Amino acid sequence: MSFLVSFCIIAFLMTIISILSSSSTKKTQESKVNGPPSYPLIGSILSFNKNRHRLLQWYTELLRLSPSQTITIPLLGNRRTIVTANPENVKYILKTNFFNFPKGKPFTDLLGDLLGQGIFNVDGHSWSSQRKLASHEFSTRSLRSFAFEVLREEVETRIVPVLSAAADDAGSTTVDLQDVLKRFAFDVVCKVSLGWDPDCLDLTRPVNPLAEAFDTAAEISARRATEPLYAVWKVKRVLNVGSERRLREAIETVHELVSDIVRAKKKSLEIGMGQEAKQDLLSRFLAAGHDSDIVRDMVISFIMAGRDTTSAAMTWLFWLLSENDDVERKLLEEVEPLMSVRLGFEELKEMSYMKACLCEAMRLYPPVSWDSKHAANDDVLPDGTHVKKGDKVTYFPYGMGRMENLWGKDCEEFKPNRWFDSEQEITEPVLKPVSPFKFPVFQAGPRVCVGKEMAFMQMKYIVGSVVSRFEIIPVSKHKPVFVPLLTAHMVGGLKVKIKRREVKSHP
Predict the structure, then answer these.
(1) Residue 474 dihedral angles phi and psi, to the nearest 5°
(2) How many domains in the chain?
(3) Is 449 annotated as a binding residue?
């Protein structure tokens, strides 16, 4: 039924496109420096549909040809899309004229079913009030300490034993490191956000239903954005068929399970549980007096933001380290002395080469490959690109990491040293400041990620704990395939063998 509906819609629309294209005696192809070929009425839908399964590469190719690193893509039935890899444009969109570039209804339509009125899917007063509350909570020492203890416990009692068990099998066990890191991240984000432990790293148990529903909902919601015609998914949603039916079922599961946790937490707070039960974000948001449904949407947004972003960045870093022995050796030189003591905030701050490795991995493989806003009014970007009210304006971290004018001729190579002021061998290399508008993996401006520092803390601790204990050996010699959904991931996971590293013992 779903296939038939989709086929009929697409066949009807493509028939109209063919008629319009053939009736035009002259195509009005835009210059290649401005974007893909464009035709009367139908815009660039033919090129978009042809390249929809390789949009990252296609956008990057077009942006490299553009002198301004900005392209425009008009599509039949959709708003015009402007894609930019120009840092001046990114600064203008995310900071200088922030209020003219909100998320906008077209964006919130894509994720609204899942995220509701959560902070990552709203604008205006609703966003401002949630942002203020979240910024306050993330800046408190108590939340930072709570999150660190959750992280320490999860590493020492779960991820290290899981990898140790694989190492003890003398190389006979293959581990999907991407899956392990996703499970780990889901455990941590649920403990910090909800005060609830899904125990996903117990590999003997079935996949947690909340984690499974999140995966399904996130994937289908993201694929809505790659439809050449929004009418396809909207019709399927109205008819409740195919992927939209699966999405509705997954969202119902997410909302129901999180609502149950919210109700239980609210009840425990009302009867006066101990202070230790009030450290998670859910308890803090409820204590601020917010309605249960709003709180549900807020914590769903934080789970969505934290569950796969850090795990994706670490997955790619582990693969990159396996391909670059010299970088791994240098990282071990920094990590091993610090692992001889019980790691804390100060030790993590000292890991400057670790941070450079993480930033370089995210430059090449950003967890969020692109992000879109919608123009509230007509505007002109700093490079002279005219923006019309309602246009979708997308900044593109994946493509920005591959622009020679931003990162040099070696922009496609993994070189952590590019993040230091000097590449010479010095005792204490200093990380150089890099504009967040050149490297917008955590966004920038008023919407900059409130959990940025917590994310670095988590990634440094995990990578340091793992790389100092184990050698990660990928099974396949082929380069993994990078696929962007709401959060980018490796197709098929990262299958590895685990081998104990012969270093000094750790506490």
Answers:
(1) -60, 140
(2) 1
(3) yes
